[in-house]
Predict the structure.
Amino acid sequence: MIEIRDLSKWYGDFQVLRNINEEIKQGQTVVVCGPSGSGKSTLLRCINGLEPFQEGEVIVDGVSVGDRSTNLYKLRTEIGMVFQRFELYPHMTALQNITLAPMKVRNKSKKEAEDKAMELLRRVGIPEKAHEYPANLSGGQQQRVAIARSLAMEPKIMMFDEPTSALDPEMIKEVLDVMIDLSKGGMTMIVVTHEMGFAREVADEIIFMDEGKIIERGTDISFFKNPKNPRTKEFLDKILL
Amino acid sequence: MGLAYKFDWGVLWRDPYGVWLLKGIWLTIQLGLLAWVIALALGILIGTIRISPWRLPRFLATAYVEVFRNIPFMVQLFFWYFAGPMLFGQSLQFRINAIIGLNYYVAILALGLYTASRVAEHTRAGFSAISRDHYQAALSTGLSHFQMYRYVIIPYALRIIIPPLTTEFLTIFKNSSIAMTIGVAETTFMSYKIDSETFHGLEATTGAMVIYLILGLGVVKLMGFLESRFRIAGLIGRK
Amino acid sequence: MGGFWITVKLTSFALLGGIPLGILVGLGRISKKKWVYYPVTFYVNLIRNIPLILVIFWFYFVMPIIVGRPLDPFPSAVISFIIFEATYFGEILRAGYQSVSKGQIEAGYSTGLTYVQTTRYILIPIAIRRMLPSMITQSIVTYQDTCLAFVIGLPEFVRRTTIVDNIEVRSIQLFGFVAILFLITCYISSVVSRRFEVKRERGY
């Protein structure tokens, strides 16, 4: 579904991604972890064209992201993304947040969009908050609305950039539960996170990145029990209690 | 201390002075409001172009802001009034200069163009205040750049910049008085005219002061009302 | 070209009077004593809400009454400017005062300095140093404002001798050309001011 070949990116003189190679099949859940500044977030943004890259190829479902002729807007309707700080539109209610893109991009009618939005809100567990503004929602609720917002476009792939890092501990579980649900339901997912419990439960592959390179990959058991690379071990020691 | 000066506050409402003053106030209001409409529409547009991803429009917008913001308003006003018509070539030039009330139109235009550059800067500041991730979140749902600005960014940014916009709105009314230098008979002009007829300029100008203060208060109240009506729950606002 | 010197003189006097007055105004604005704070705030808000032209006119009319005899335009203008610019410098300095950390003031008091001494030797110098870029740009604005006054001065003489019965005063066209020459100098001062602003920013 996603093929990344020799992907390299520079910010000016600074190389933030070095020769990334990776393949993600449909239905897989891939967890990306690593110290900050390792390029994880940038990698995600290269996949949906939010960040340009200088070298290499990224092919999503047959579409080459780096190609000049590619319609990035259309590509993004197939890839949903959830952000660390939720980024809900503050001047709109939860419902309006979710229905905006389906109505404006897919030209759905208001009723159609709202019905779907309510369904999604039920799915993430907060249908009663449909008419609340983000400021009146807890962090966990906001993030769940953000997930619903991305799901509203019925994407083939969902990407998560440290979705629980800005949450109070009590709310992390409610968001992870939604994500686990999504993964078990067959969604192709790339999740940048430090939540190893989540990785252990649903990840098909775990990637450790440092300084722009993929240092190690593995499936959960091999990854956690026998990390091959000393840097991986170092990192895991720090984040696992 | 005996004052040799006899106050005559009647100049403020006696015929014909009162009428002059009213006409002046009406012109000030017209100048301010019409120029403000131009400034808002043009300014927000230019501010948006300023941060668009396309190089040429962005450069033009930046050039506009730098030019119109840094040249003192009176210089701009004089330019448009005296040199402006010449830009239209020989034949049109005379026709334009013969338009009655030309100074009125020029004043509104100049005031609008000048203030637009400042509104553009405030708009840009509003956009900068919104995090990069927020833009990306909107784009990631498949919205086009245009849709993102129209539905997500601009509504948000506008609410953020209501305070500085209020200041600009106030400044427009103050700058409208500069139009008197090209003969527009607005409030300040009229207060001066009353003095030239009655030599009671003190009362006249004091009256004019009060008028500007009232206008200023009206602006502040209006913007305050807008601010509360469009308040985004949870953002820092004034009580 | 004599006009140019007038504007320079006017600016200099305005700054010489306006900045010290502004220092005091700023202090007044952060004063905890109500009998200081309210009048000063009233004065600042009053002046800042009305156009400069009107302030100049108003003083031109007020001064003769207070002083008891008609005043020459130049001193009247100087006083108007001092009062006007002092409000702007006052606000700039107020921001400067508020940026001085309380600790430094408390340090001053704890070494036994009086309010006046603390203010004079600690608060004011620090504030001025911090706000110097803003003060310089405001000074240039003052220069531009004096250009404005000069331009007003010309039609003033023209109008005093003509009977105005139209909305449009065509005699302005006559002096317009001369005024434009002055306004070009204003523009140049804007450019200078901007260069200075940018230079200052790069300095950090």
In short: Chain B touches chain A at residues 131, 133-134, 136-144, 147, 151-152, 155-156, 159, 230, 232-235 (CB under 8 Å). Chain B has one domain: 9-229.
